[in-house]
Structures are given as C-alpha cells and as structure tokens.
Amino acid sequence: MDRQNNMELAAQLIQEGKLVAFPTETVYGLGANALDPMAVAKIFLLKERPSFDPLIIHIADLEDIKKLTTEEDERVYQLAERFWPGSLTLVLPKSKLVPDIITSGLPTVGIRMPANEIALELIRTSGRPIAAPSANKFGRISPTTAAHVRKQLPDVDYILDGGKTTVGIESTIIELTEKGFRILRNGIITKEDIEEVLPFDDSEKTESIVAPGMVKSHYSPVKKMIVADEDIPLDIDKSKAGLLSFTGKYENGYRKIIRVSENNDLKEYAVNMFDAMHTFEDDNEIDIIVAEPVAETGIGKAIMDRLRKAEYNWRRG
Ligand code: TXA
Ligand code: MG
After folding, report:
1. How far is the CA of 65 from the centre of ligand 2 (A)?
2. In this predicted model, what pLDDT tens digit does every residue of 15-49 receive, in sequence order?
3. Counting atoms of ligand 1 from 1, which one is nearest the CA of 109?
4. Quick one: which atom of ligand 1 is closest to the CA of 58?
5. Which residues, by range, are in coiled-coil regions (predicted)?
6. Are both 228 and 187 inside the same structural domain?
7. What is the CATH number of the domain that holds 256?
8. What's the CA dihedral at 119, 37, 19, 49 to 10 degrees?
9. Within this chain, do residues 85 and 148 fall inside the same structural domain, yes or no?
10. What domain range is 294 assigned to?
C-alpha cells in the first residue's frame, strides 16, 4: 500500500470503513468513520480497548455539533469560539445519529475540533465525523509521532504522517453543569483558561460514573517507570536508568538523560514527555524510566496525571 501522505486514499479508506491513523495537535489518533458502528468496532479490536471506554468524535465544522448532540446550550458555542480548533473536548448529550458503541452506551458523547490541518483535511475530504482514540495499544504510552503508531499498531490500514505533534498530551475533557463546568481529564487548556469563559463547578458530583476511561493505570511503558518523588528512596540501579529531567536537579548518576525542557517550560515537558518515554522504552541499555515531577498547578496537573498513571502498576509491584 502507498505509504506516502495520500489524503485522497486516506479519506477513501475512512469511507470504506477502514482505520486511518492521523496526527492531531495533541497525540496521533486512530480514526474511523464515526457513523459506521462496524468501522468503530475495529478501533476497539486493534487497540485492544475495553468496550466500556468511550471514544471522542472529531469534527471540522461547527455545524456538525448540531448533528451529533441534542445540546442547544449557547455556552457550547462560547467555548467553541474561544478554544476550537484546539485541545478541548466537550462531553454533551448525544443525538440518535451517534452509535452506542462510540459512547459505550452512555447518553453523552465527547466532541472536539482538532487544531491540525491534516486532521481537519481528513475529516473534510472523507465527509465524515471521525471517531478516534489515541493511536496506541490500550494502557500503553501515547503516540506523538507516526513511528510511535507504527511500533504499537503495525496493522493499521494507513498512517498519515504529520511529524511530531505540537502539544504532546491528550485534550482537556470537560462536561457542562448548571453552575459551569467540571474537568474530567486535565490537558494543556487549564481550569484557569476555561474560567475565562465559564465558572468552575466545584460542587460534589452526584452521579456515580462520569468518565469510565479514567483508570488508574495508563500511558505505561513496558519497562519499569517511576516518578522521582522526594518520598521514595531511589535505590534503583541508576546505571540502567533513564531520566526525564526538567530542572536538572536529579541528574546525578543516570545512564541516560533526556532534558524535556531547555528552560523550565511546562509546555515543553508536555510536548516531549511521551516521546522521551518511547525513546527509553526502545533503548536496550535502559531498564528503568524515571521522571522528574512538577508542581500540580496549571499544566503541571496534566503532566502529573500522565506520570502518576504511567508509574501506577510499577510502583505497586
Ligand atoms: O487529544 C485527544 O483527546 C486525543 C486525540 C486523538 O484527539 N484522543 C484521546 O482519546 O485521548 P482517548 O480515547 O485516548 O481518550 C478519550 C477519553 C476516554 O478514555 C474517556 O475517558 C473520555 O475520553 N470520554 C469519551 N467520551 C466520554 C463521555 N461521553 N463521557 C465521559 N468521558 C468520555
Ligand atoms: Mg488514550
């Protein structure tokens, strides 16, 4: 098959119910025609994703929101105006058009308009809204390059290569409430950013389940991974360890170091985090991946959310 960036072919494959991996500004997505349940089912199979974990639908035109949701709240358009195209996913009541397999049976659907020209062109050329999770195996490190996708999903029908993604971590996910908004997943668009448009709702949640995909372990390398907290004795063999270094203060003795930011910039940490984890995962000289923690404010919340989930299984056992 043609491995070049052939948009016509990629769009045709989407129309035929095949899977196309494509870049967004956050991470690469594994895309299928959102209106074709059989095509969407292939996403779950290839990713080995449990059926209870719902997918996000990607649109290129604000009008599409009217087809996919029953929400008529004008706050949706205020948010879209401010943040789209961009890394904000809105969870809204779904319309009948949205197949249940996408939402894992929930009455709501996650929707976003990605800020990436290749992604937008794929949606427009295929003429279909595109359902896409991150293009990795379930639970593994998210992909920020086409090579990361190829590594985990060699059997995908087609990959559009857009180089390294510019944000590096998944979108912020929010839901609307009477009072304002709640955050279901942190991302590069922070609570403070959204508060410029809507009030944050800090009231207790009454419903029992909101985001079934918010599992404790995720984004995990196949090697041991640990966050270099002050509270854990780092009695690891550093001669076999690779460090994701942010400030430089932990660098002593490590076999390899990747500086995730040149000048203490959290956005750079986000851009380089998954790529650095992939690099160490692929490096035969490295047995353990260590990551420097950051303060859990602003973008730091989204970074620490990923790092905590990546280390979760390893820390416990
Ligand atoms: O940046 C992103 O959001 C990337 C790119 C490809 O757009 N996509 C992504 O998708 O991160 P995924 O499937 O890896 O994560 C989507 C998460 C799910 O795990 C689920 O927790 C949440 O979105 N989600 C989707 N629909 C939802 C819904 N109706 N209610 C609550 N949570 C939902
Ligand atoms: Mg994912």
Report:
1. 22
2. 999 999 999 999 999 999 999 999 999 999 999 99
3. 29
4. 7
5. none
6. no
7. 3.40.50.11030
8. 100
9. yes
10. 224-316
